[in-house]
């Protein structure tokens, strides 16, 4: 059955507000109908250019607008990226995500990122990048270089967006997602909870994601990690059940998408993470750091997977690695 993309806000609100255990049960049923229930996809995220970002995302340590004490780093070399990708592969990751703190890549950056995609792809890993806004030609060139996924989060609801970011608009985000889709790339797009938004905003975010013409293949649901020096540093922590509700509703609305636990996971207990998996999360970032925020390390994850009996999904070979001409 084709996943629906005509969800109404009322339907989503109804799903979101049902008793917690009913919601979890429903989400787990949807999950089992679409995925191997005990399998988890693991990605690794590497920052290829850190800090001094001209954007003003209020949650981000990398924004040049705030004094988060983050040490900015220039672009790292392609050789270093390839080394990190090899380590990620050896520790079980099937996808390698490369992120740069840019508003958008400049033309002078394109040869650098294109070479990186080719080299990481040649290791047999799926590739993902998050570089900010893209124009149509940049998206096409990334696709031609072998990029599999492009990450571009909607962050929050359309209504709340301007409270969090003023240097770009919600429609700018949607335009980039459109270029990414038109180029034939897979989409990774989700948001962050705990930004001071209300429940209607979480429902609004889920509504935007689940009514895109094609659902994102990957939907990261982050929990704010408050960073000293940023405007959201002192925000009261959102109750973890609201995060798990958001994950569960995402699973029901987008049954074929991988729902990913991202930032904020390192502050969760094993049992909270198990609840998130029960709610339908089936993907996560592994590694000591998520760009600049702390994350559960690979060893900690292996221990948790063993405890819960979760199997790590293997990278699927691409068409070119199977020796068949690309059809897309
Ligand atoms: S979230 Fe991305 S775009 Fe926003 S300030 Fe941080 S690095 Fe820049």
Automatic annotation (TrEMBL):
Its cofactor is [2Fe-2S] cluster; [4Fe-4S] cluster. Keywords: 2Fe-2S, 4Fe-4S, Biotin biosynthesis, Iron, Iron-sulfur, Metal-binding, S-adenosyl-L-methionine, Transferase. It holds the Pfam family BATS. [2Fe-2S] cluster binds at residues 97, 128, 188, 260. Catalyzes the conversion of dethiobiotin (DTB) to biotin by the insertion of a sulfur atom into dethiobiotin via a radical-based mechanism. [4Fe-4S] cluster binds at residues 53, 57, 60. Belongs to the radical SAM superfamily. Biotin synthase family. Gene3D superfamilies: Aldolase class I. This is Biotin synthase. GO terms for biological process: biotin biosynthetic process. The keyword DNA-binding does not apply. Its EC number is 2.8.1.6. PROSITE patterns: RADICAL_SAM (PS51918).
């Amino acid at each position: 059955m084709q996943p629906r993309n005509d969800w109404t806000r009322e339907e989503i609100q109804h799903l979101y507000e049902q008793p917690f255990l009913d919601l979890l049960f429903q989400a787990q049923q949807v999950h089992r109908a679409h995925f191997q229930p005990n399998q988890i996809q693991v990605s690794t995220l590497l920052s290829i250019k850190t800090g001094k970002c001209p954007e003003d995302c209020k949650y981000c340590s990398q924004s040049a607008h705030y004094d988060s004490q983050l040490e900015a780093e220039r672009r790292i070399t392609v050789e270093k990226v390839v080394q990190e990708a090899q380590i990620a592969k050896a520790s079980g990751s099937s996808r390698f995500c490369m992120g740069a703190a840019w508003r958008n890549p400049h033309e002078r950056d394109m040869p650098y990122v294109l070479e990186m995609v080719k080299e990481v792809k040649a290791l047999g890993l799926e590739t993902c990048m998050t570089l900010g806004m893209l124009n149509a030609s940049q998206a096409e060139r990334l696709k031609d270089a072998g990029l599999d996924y492009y990450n571009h989060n909607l962050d929050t609801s359309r209504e709340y967006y301007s409270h969090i970011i003023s240097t770009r608009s919600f429609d700018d985000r949607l335009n980039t997602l459109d270029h990414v889709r038109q180029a034939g790339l897979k989409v990774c797009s989700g948001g962050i909870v705990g930004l001071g938004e209300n429940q209607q905003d979480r429902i609004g975010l889920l509504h935007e994601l689940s009514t895109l013409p094609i659902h994102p293949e990957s939907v990261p649901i982050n929990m704010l990690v408050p960073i000293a020096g940023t405007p959201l540093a002192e925000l009261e922590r959102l109750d973890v059940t609201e995060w798990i509700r958001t994950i569960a509703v995402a699973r029901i609305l987008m049954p074929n998408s991988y729902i990913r636990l991202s930032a904020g996971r390192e502050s969760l207990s094993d049992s909270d993470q198990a609840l998130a998996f029960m709610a339908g999360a089936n993907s996560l970032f592994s590694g000591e750091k998520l760009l600049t925020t702390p994350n559960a390390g690979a060893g900690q994850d292996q221990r948790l997977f063993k405890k819960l009996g979760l199997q790590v999904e293997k990278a699927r070979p691409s068409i070119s690695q199977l020796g068949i001409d690309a059809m897309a």
